[in-house]
Amino acid sequence: MTTTDPAALGELMHTAFRGLRKRWMQQLAPYELTPHQFRAMGAVARAGHQGSASGPGCGTGLRLKELAQRLNIAPRSATEVVDQLEAKGLVERRTHPADRRAMLLTLTEAGERLREAVLSDRSREAGEYFSVLPDEDRAELARILGDLAAERE
């Protein structure tokens, strides 16, 4: 089916996204993770590798407020996600070295290992999902989606 109708394109994109999301949720189920939890783990991991946005010398980790901003969710929702991850032993709260009233979120060793395992599985799953497209179509899709994503930033 070839179309240039924006509504039809939107519906096709939505259908493809639903397929990807369903596979993603099925992939996370054995790890007992939700997509929100995994996204939070990724944000915490990136902050740990880059240092906190709270400024130099503040240690590595991510404040809860920063996590909520990065995930574009309410701080209360971020607290719930972090509480769930902490209960699973995947993240921990540490006292901020420059502000003892603040806490920094970091991944535990178990969280790092789990995140790496999920990323490996995700890469394999995505490879299978997109394998129906020839290399040149995947490259074109990446270009198109990149253009659409850049337009929204």
TrEMBL record:
Membrane-spanning residues: none
Domain HTH marR-type, first and last residues per copy: 6-150
An MF annotation (GO) of this entry: DNA-binding transcription factor activity
BP GO terms, sorted: response to stress
Entry keyword Glycoprotein: no
Record's keyword terms, sorted: DNA-binding, Transcription, Transcription regulation
InterPro entries: HTH_MarR-typ (IPR000835), MarR/SlyA-like (IPR039422), Tscrpt_reg_MarR-type_CS (IPR023187), WH-like_DNA-bd_sf (IPR036388), WH_DNA-bd_sf (IPR036390)
Descriptive protein name: MarR family transcriptional regulator
Species annotation: Arthrobacter yangruifuii
Taxonomic path: Bacteria, Bacillati, Actinomycetota, Actinomycetes, Micrococcales
